[in-house]
């Protein structure tokens, strides 16, 4: 990596991973900058975890090249593992070891000197609210406690780059929110983070995201930029017969998709239609609607327009 690429932590070109002819990741190009949270957003099976495993050096690409922190992967994977942290989707620590024993074991694996090991374990136990849980067996902890322990072990050796695979899939909303605040603290301290998620609200917290579908990147950029460029306007409809209005609207000219959210129908209208509110008000299909108004797009709207549902 040339010297002017110092702000790039990951560069991948033409990344492919095939399993018995099935392309789990299909031609992925990525440039991820230092000091940001970069998210892979997509449903289960879209290739997020496979891509992450190639970026960490755990999987060898079928095709393409990867550079992480200036190192060629998987060739330099052994050197790289001391510079990165990786938190897997499933809890992967030892359930029959205590919190303290797990941290000690991982610190030894990472080769922390004795004095530094003690210091870092004390720091992460305090930071991630584990100080009172040192003697608790990991297998007896709640989802939120396990999550905090997994993060503590992943950052024990102060990695420059942290990989988190669906880190909040097994915790409650309050724990999720708290976890994300901790991620921003890490970024503030100089860590770059790559995270996979299928939660739209989490993806909106990322500085940049890649929307994945069927092993391919359908879109990438800052969430607000993707919302601005998504090629659709969002209009919400209220009325007594929303299921009927939705059924009649789907498949009509100018309508990308329609989905009910509570007492409203959320309709994506192609953005070449100059006045989407008037367009819907004038359609026979919306007879009976009591309110039709244009609203701000969200990341779910971007996801729909970028993936199969909106591109058919």
Automatic annotation (TrEMBL):
Name under which the protein is recorded: Putative ABC transporter ATP-binding protein YbhF
Q: Which organism is it from?
A: Roseibium aggregatum
Where are its TM segments located? none
Which residue ranges does the record assign to the ABC transporter domain? 10-239
Q: Does the keyword Transcription apply?
A: no
This protein's source sits in the domain of life called Bacteria
Which keywords label this protein?
ATP-binding, Nucleotide-binding
Which Gene3D superfamilies would you find in this protein's record? P-loop containing nucleotide triphosphate hydrolases
């Amino acid at each position: 990596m040339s010297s002017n690429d110092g702000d790039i932590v990951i560069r991948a070109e033409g990344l492919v991973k095939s399993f018995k002819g099935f392309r789990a990741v299909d031609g992925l190009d990525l440039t991820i900058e230092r000091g940001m949270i970069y998210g892979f957003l997509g449903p289960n099976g879209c290739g997020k975890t496979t891509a992450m495993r190639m970026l960490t050096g755990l999987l060898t690409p079928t095709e393409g090249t990867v550079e992480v922190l200036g190192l060629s992967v998987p060739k330099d994977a052994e050197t790289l593992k001391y510079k990165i942290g990786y938190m897997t989707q499933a809890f992967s620590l030892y359930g029959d070891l205590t919190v303290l024993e797990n941290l000690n074991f991982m610190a030894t694996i990472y080769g922390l000197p004795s004095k530094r090991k003690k210091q870092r374990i004390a720091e992460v136990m305090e930071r991630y609210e584990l100080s009172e849980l040192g003697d608790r067996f990991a297998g007896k902890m709640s989802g939120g406690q396990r999550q905090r322990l997994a993060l503590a072990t992943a950052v024990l050796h102060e990695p420059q780059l942290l990989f988190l695979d669906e880190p909040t899939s097994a915790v409650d909303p309050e724990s999720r929110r708290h976890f994300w605040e901790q991620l921003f603290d890490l970024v503030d301290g100089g860590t770059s983070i790559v995270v996979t998620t299928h939660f739209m609200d989490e993806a909106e917290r990322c500085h940049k995201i890649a929307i994945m579908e069927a092993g391919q990147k359908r879109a990438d950029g800052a969430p607000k930029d993707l919302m601005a460029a998504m090629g659709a306007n969002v209009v919400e409809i209220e009325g007594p017969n929303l299921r009927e209005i939705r059924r009649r609207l789907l498949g009509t000219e100018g309508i990308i998709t329609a989905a009910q959210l509570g007492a409203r129908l959320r309709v994506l209208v192609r953005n070449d239609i100059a006045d989407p509110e008037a367009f819907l008000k004038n359609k026979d299909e919306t007879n009976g609607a009591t309110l039709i108004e244009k609203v701000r797009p969200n990341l779910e709207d971007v996801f729909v327009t970028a993936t199969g549902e909106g591109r058919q």
